[in-house]
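[Automated response] Your request has been received and processed.

Submitted sequence:
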Amino acid sequence: MDKESLRPLVFEILRKTPQTHLHAIENEIRRRDEGYTRGDALTLSEIVWELLVQGILAPGKNSLNLNLPFVHVTEYGARSLDDGTILAHDPEGYVRRLIDHTGGRADEFTRETAREATLCFIAGRYQATIVLLARAAEHLFDLLAAAIIENSRRTGRGTKRIESAGRRPEARYRKIHRALFAKGKKSAEVEELEPSIAGLNNMILLSRTEEGEPRVPAIDRERARGHLLLFPEGCRATYRLIDILAGRESS
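Generated structure:
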């Protein structure tokens, strides 16, 4: 079994048994899945070590068993398991969510950049997480700008403003926002999508200066996790706006 198959099983076991040890986790997986073999023990061990490094688990089960292989779910880990944000620690599950949110339309650049962002988050590289998400968000804005230009040409409106937007994040966003959300243009559905597009822009602003030059974002684990979990919804909103601009109905 690979990590993609094992990781959800480990999460489910930890939800039910937050104080446990490595061999108990292995025995429970063996009971649940006939595909688990002795050779998978090393893969399971790697997952447990990753969760320890990420702060989901910590050594020890109780005052009598304070060391490995005994482990317990931390306060942060319990929150992540309970509210579903454990997805940020599951790269393949995260990409599946991204694909589901976009109806399978998320392109290779978006998928792979999001996967790398998740892997950076797991490794505790929170600045790299935001930089990668911001690059994916810029790519989505490129797609959105192209759809706005195509719509303007089809409807006989000018395209100069959006074509000259440049790469300065705030100026570009203002022009995209005006084209999509200007007063009198917003339908109820478009208005509902606006916060998700703003969320993508916030990711970009964390990694770009006002002049559009790259910068190292000031970010911690909680904020990085929040942006990571909001990104699929930003992708969904982008593709839905592209459909609206093209005159396509919601599926």
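Summary generated for your ticket: The chain has a mean pLDDT of 90. The CA atoms of residues 38 and 195 lie 48 Å apart.
If you did not submit this request, please reply to this message.
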